[in-house]
UniProtKB/TrEMBL annotation:
UniProt xrefs under PROSITE patterns: HTH_MARR_1, HTH_MARR_2
UniProt name for this protein: MarR family transcriptional regulator
Regions annotated as coiled coil: none
Domain HTH marR-type: start-end pairs: 30-163
Transmembrane segments: none
Pfam families named among the record's database cross-references: MarR_2
Keywords annotated in UniProt: DNA-binding, Transcription, Transcription regulation
Source organism: Microbacterium bandirmense
Amino acid sequence: MARPRPLPIDPLAEAKRQWLAHGWTDAAEGMAVVTSIMRAQQLLLARVDAALKPFGVTFARYEVLRLLAFSRSGTLPLSSVVARLQVHATSLTSTAERLVRDGLVRRDPHPHDGRAALLSLTDAGRDLVERATAALNTEVFSSPGLDAGDAKELVGIVARLRKNAGDFTDPRPLPEPL
């Protein structure tokens, strides 16, 4: 896919100028924050999608695989995956079904809770997530488009935004995001 040419002006700066010109001064900075973060998310997701395309997984599926691979046994209750990834149970169920269909995870009944299910990483899932992680590390995470100082500052700023929105209460584990 050809990369589009850069625009001669920043459309988000122009949007802010328009907000100010229309007298929405109290909302202009907030509009610029929201639209800037949303545009940055689009740009980063495009890079992530390109890195994951050869593996046939979306970032949502990758996150489930990576979380399972980080667990001691490669197995977690579905409810724990929902909580840790901060997604709706319905979305995770759909994602898990695709991973099961592709042979990357197993969905097993919980041994002590008949209403719960466990997700377990298969050998194929473990192999894929390790290869996908290497690709993401090389193609996206090692050079996100900011120098190390700006990256650290941005992570801290976004962590404060998330904390103020009620996303979490305790900033641990280390390193501290704030």
